[in-house]
Amino acid sequence: MGIKKFIYRFLLFCIIAFPVLTYNSLYAYYTRSYEFTVNGTEVYVSINKSNMRKKVKALIIGDSVGKQLYDNDTYNGDIFSLASNRAMSIAGYYILLKNFINHNQGQLPQSVYLLLTPSSFLNNLDQIFTFHYFLKPFYKSQNQAYFTPVCIQQIKKVPLYFTSQLPFVVNTNWSPEYHADKDTSYHIISPISHDYLIKISQLCDSNHIQLNILGTPVKMVYKKQTLAYAHYANEFKSCGLQNQLTSYFNHIQFMPDSVFFDDIHFKKEHIPKDYFKLESKADE
Fold first, then answer.
1. How many domains are there within the chain?
2. What is the extent of the structural domain holding 18?
3. How far apart are CA 234 and CA 46, in angstroms?
4. CB within 8 Å of 56: residues ≥ 6 apart
5. Exposed/middle/buried for residue 100 (C-beta within 10 Å: 0-12, 13-18, 19+)
6. In whole angstroms, what is the distance from residue 74 CA to residue 279 CA?
7. How high is the mean pLDDT in each 10-residue block of the chain (284 residues)?
8. What is the pLDDT of residue 10?
9. Same domain for 59 and 154?
């Protein structure tokens, strides 16, 4: 094939393909169908549930281990789960909680349960997954009022953060490379976690909701490391939750490494049912 013929065919392909690809991308963007196809669909499940008006007794927020214990696909009754993943950070959990409370004035839950594995407190929105799991779903105009100065500072460190809402970006799995320098200013409670633990606590207090911060089970191999976190009471105290967080670490259970398939997640056959006995509490 001659070079002229190749160029002609390539340009013809572009002329035909570009409108089709553009239409498909814009269609996915405006219908939000991408929420069912991109990585992290569990985030969008929780966002959509957080905007529902529904009377529940216990509302769950938390990371992916919390989701294993109380799946946001199945806990849709008196126990209502918005648990999703660690990458959205405690800032993301706060926005979910704020949404739900805003939509359910007059019928608020009795209790909120924040379920976390210890390493989730370390998330400072400085991870490789921050762009896809936090910026894409949450960096929107309706959430701007919920971003603290520290949160905005962290967002602006992410490469190309300002592109996260473009149709050709938000409805794909693409993210820019991001490798942040390690922040050594904290041991367990990151600045983002600090700010949003305070905001979650204040939000629950102002709405007369009981806040419970509970630790999900940890691999036995990490017992020493996990127990060492309990020594940083100054970080707990600085966010006004010293008693809550001290209790969190004192009550973590350690399980055999064999029941986990990675550092934090249970093998499917070993996921405990109603680990925190929330179903029986809801029946009381």
1. 2
2. 1-31
3. 32
4. 77, 78, 79, 80, 109
5. buried
6. 13
7. 52 46 51 84 97 97 98 96 97 98 97 97 95 97 97 96 92 91 90 97 98 97 92 88 91 96 96 93 70
8. 44
9. yes
